[in-house]
Amino acid sequence: MSKIALVDDDRNILTSVSITLEAEGFEVETYNDGQQALDAFSKKLPDMAVLDIKMPRMDGMDLLQRLRQKTSMPVIFLTSKDDEIDEVLGLRMGADDYVKKPFSQRLLVERIRALLRRQEAVDGDIVGETEDTKIMERGELTMDPLRHSVSWKGQDVTLTVTEFLLLQALAQRPGFVKSRDQLMDVAYDDQVYVDDRTIDSHIKRLRKKMRTVDRDFSAIETLYGIGYRYNEE
Question: Do the strands 155-157 and 149-152 form a parallel or antiparallel pair, or are they unpaired?
Answer without folding.
Answer: antiparallel
